[in-house]
Structures are given as structure tokens and as C-alpha cells.
């Protein structure tokens, strides 16, 4: 099979500031939303031509803690964010209405990493101001009492699922913003996903820590309607690290997971695909990411999976046979992350939140502007 991504290249660089960009999501095919560890969310409009300096056009304000997940409803009209401030917020994804404001980009740019392995540190970019429209949320969900790490949408846009560090999972009526069901897990919810039909919630739980006596991670399928456990996959997915991201393929054929820990050296950032009904492992992709795999995203073609890790790489995998198609980016031993991935609905563009420089890289997957 020819490599359809052979000409993939970065065509846009979206700058920000000194804080880690922790979440990214496409709004349609020409807008990118990015959230950071301060609780800020910026919206960028993508032009038709390549650019290495694209300023944001909107700033979404209201969160007071780190943004952990960003998702967009299937109709493309609503952006949803989950945060350490214990809230989930809805935002108008397409409106340009709001108050005028500004945001400083490249302010206090950090030079982090294992600098002893670098002959010369790069020159930090100059800070500059961008004029933006400031917008507030259109709805807020306040059912959680701890940090919200898990966020997932059903394919029809009717159900939203959230999970927090207290082990509480809530299924919401997404349009109304009302609770349909909630249940209690044993440990912290590290990541979760909801099946395309909205009936099953796949949940990874773990208790983070550096001690060798840390409670081992667990993984379960839950009934979204009743909150009852359907399948215990803890043995099937056994390992020292919790799943950092879980995702169902749009056609429901695959369940992808990635894991890893920044505290452990070596090729621990495993990426696997599983049977979405039984949870049985279908394939473990090799070579894994070094130290940690942070996110996974299915390509709309239904044939490829993308993963991102602490090794600064985005890996493209062939689902049929688990073959590594190619790596995007340059391997670094440690210190920098690709924290989050999003693929445009038409499959042409990939957005990757890059911790090395606090920016979002937008790739053209077919090599065209």
C-alpha cells in the first residue's frame, strides 16, 4: 500500500505563551481551538496558504484551572471543555460576537528540557500582542467535585460522558446539560471513551504516584444507561501505567488505547487496539513511544490511527496490520511532549499541541497548502 502521508508537512504554526498547551480540537476544517494549563482557550482561523505566524482571533474566558480535554459536537456548533476547576463548559464554536481584548503571545518563553545535551539553546521568540474577541461560555456543568480528566461525546451528539479524580462518572444529556446517570468507580478516572452507539463507556482508572506500591491501573466497560460494569479488562490491559487516552473508531470497529509514564525511562508508551465488545487485544503497535504516549486519534478514512508521545513524535499506524507508516517530527530523548492531537473532519489536516515552544503545529497530511 502506498504511503498516502508521504508528503505530510507542517504548514501552520500557531504560537502561544509559556504555559503548556494541554488540549487541541478542530472546529470544522478551518479553525483550531487550543487550551492550556492556565485555563485559557484560544481560537485560530486557518488561511488557505501556509504560515509560520498565525495569531488567534478569539479568547474564551471562564475556566480557572487547566484545560484537560476539548471536543466539538458533531454539528460543529459547540466546543466543550473539561477542566481542573471541576467544571465542563459549552462555548459557541462559530460566533465572532464578543468584547474586544488582547492576548500576549510568546510571553516568558521557557527553555526547558535536558539542556546539557544541546550545544546551543535556541533564541526565544519575541513576545507580541494579538487583538482578539473575548467570549464567555454559553453553558456550564457543575456536577463534579474534583478535577475532570475524562470527556467523551456519543456519535449522535446526544450524550456527553465525564469522569473525575474522585472516580465519579456522569452521563449527561448533552443538548440540555442535565444528568442522565452517574456512578462511582474505585480509583481516579484517567481517561474514558463512549462507544459510537452511546451504550458503553470504556474507562481507565489509576492512582498516580512515584512509589513502587502504587495501586495498579484498572480498565472496565460500563453500561451507560445503568452504570453497571459490563466487562473487567484489568487483566487484559495489565501494565504499570494507566491509559492516557482511549478512543473508539467512528465505525465502532476498533477501540484504541495508549499508555505511558513520564517517571519511567524506556519504550513504555504503548499503543494498542482492542475488540470494542470483548476488550480482547487485537494488536500492539511497535515500536512504541519512548516514556509516554499521550493521545490517539482515528483518521476519517477508517484505515489509520495517529498517536503522540513524549518523544516529540506523531506516529501514523495502519490499522489492518499494525504497521508503522511513518513518524512525523523529530525524536528527542526526553523533555518535550506532543500533548494532544486532532484531525480535521475532511482528514486533510492534523493539529498537534507541541510542548517544545508552546505552540500548535498544523500538518497538511497530503502535503498540499
From TrEMBL:
InterPro entries from the UniProt entry: WD40, WD40/YVTN_repeat-like_dom_sf, WD40_PAC1, WD40_rpt
WD repeat ranges per the UniProt record: 60-92, 141-182, 286-327
Protein's organism: Lignipirellula cremea
Record PROSITE patterns: WD_REPEATS_2, WD_REPEATS_REGION
Name listed for the protein in its UniProt record: WD domain, G-beta repeat
Highest taxon of the lineage: Bacteria
CDD domains linked: WD40
Keyword terms of this UniProt record: Repeat, WD repeat
